Fold this protein.
Amino acid sequence: MKTIGQLSEALRLREVSSVELVQDALARIAVAQPRFNAFITVDADAALAAARDADAARARGEAGALTGIPIAHKDVLMTAGMRTTCGSRMLAEFVAPYDAHVVTRLRDAGTVLVGKTNMDEFAMGSSNESSYFGPARNPWNPAHIPGGSSGGSAAAIAAALVPGTTGTDTGGSIRQPAAMCGITGIKPTYGLCSRYGLVAFASSLDTPGVFARDALGCALLLDAMAGHDARDSTSLDRPPEDRSRALRESATAKPLAGLRIGLPREYFGDGVDAAVAGAIDTALGALRALGATTVDIGLPAVKHSVPVYYVIAPAEASSNLSRFDGVRYGHRAGHYTDLADMYCRSRAEGFGAEVKRRILVGTYVLSHGYYDAYYLKAQQVRRLIAQDFARAYRDCDVIVGPTAPTAAFPIGAKTDDPVQMYLNDIFTIAANLTGSPALSIPCGCTADGLPIGLQIQGNHFEEARILNVAHRFQQATDWHLRTPPGVESAVRKGGP
Amino acid sequence: MALTSDDVQRLARLARIEIDAGATRDVQAKLDAIFAMIDELLSIDTAGIVPMAHAQDLMLPLREDAVTETDRHALYQQGAPSVAGGLYLVPKVIE
């Protein structure tokens, strides 16, 4: 199991070519797809052509750190010439006329796109079970969910199919599957990566981000992906940053000396599984051994983050998804009586149950007589949550706790109870409401061998700091290097 | 707050999503459970709190008022369900 950093070095030393890496990835995907369903689309010919281009660029001396590295995009990011389904029947055959900005940037950095990964329909879900293309499965135990909504992107790395993938995170959709699959995933500050070409779910919360085995891989992908884009009015114009520089510096005995870790009381109470609590406690011991100190903090309003989210996100979704009308793109019903009936039937057939549910919730909270009671109220409580975090960061540099209250649950366990499913995001939603960066790294496993994730949150634009904390933890531990049973034997030697 | 089946059908009409009469009860039960969870917000004191619509307090950026888009309607219409002569076709609206 090689990391992006190791593969980058192997490519630089010409120990392996991009074509060989892509051939290996395609072989692994062919074996793993029936077991894990991590991909919706794979384009072998395009991937091999791009790999040949990457090898040619290297031969000309034009290679960067990511040139020739195979990756996959979450199927919510538009790719010209390769279908973008959003895990929905609505867009099952949709081929976008242009690339998302982050897709362009990662291609310009030399990465090779292998395919598009499975996801909850329109990124609405925490388990990948709402995908029209069937659930992706957890490589640590295929009877369990990989997390969601970016479940395929996380499963693809845990199953050693590709070394890096993109995801999007609206309420935890990168961090929660990273935790469930035992890999590293980061949601950066809102506005750092352009949303242009990201099929919109909740525009004030949607954030493109990345997955890799380790923090260094995430830093390399994020540096390539971040950047101003005038076509997204919320894209921030900031100077380029080298987020992997601090990670490449040699470790000292106490690399985290001076770091103040905030431990929110609200993240360590009832409702956290005992195995999760134990693993987080052990991880905190490791972070203290690296020189960090811990301080208790309070985030009293954070307990309201789930209801706030389930007003704001559906409200924005009901507006964003009104574009799917069976006229300009997407599914159109075969039989209808008039225009209104065509809309209603096309949307009834094109959307799955969870997407419809959220559109209905959003329609309600935005409707006459309820807007102030629900939507404005939720925006006010969102402010209270943001104020809690701003206060907390006066006393600490990063905030650490569990990514999710439990490890991955069995497929089907929560499909009939949407509220229980929503509560899975209790620790991740706040970072979307505040727009601040947060990541998840593996820090342990349950008695059943399912991974447990540690969430590290930072203040706005502190990606380099939280990545460095993750990196130093990963230098001292080996959770991020562990692979699911059977994964190594299912693949060929020498690849990612 | 508990919804009635009429509420569910009204929401479905507003959202332009057909919901079979047979499915209304299940949709209603799940929406009720979601609103029971959301309703905890109603008791929070938010007097004087400015609503937060967005993670960044930014002004909408302005640009020169210049034509920047080219005509790509043929490309954009490639994925449309029904097109003729550069127009999207829909059921007749005016008799």
Remarks:
- Helices of chain B lie at 5-14, 21-38, 73-76.
- Chain B touches chain A through 51 residues (CB under 8 Å).
- Chain B has a mean pLDDT of 93.
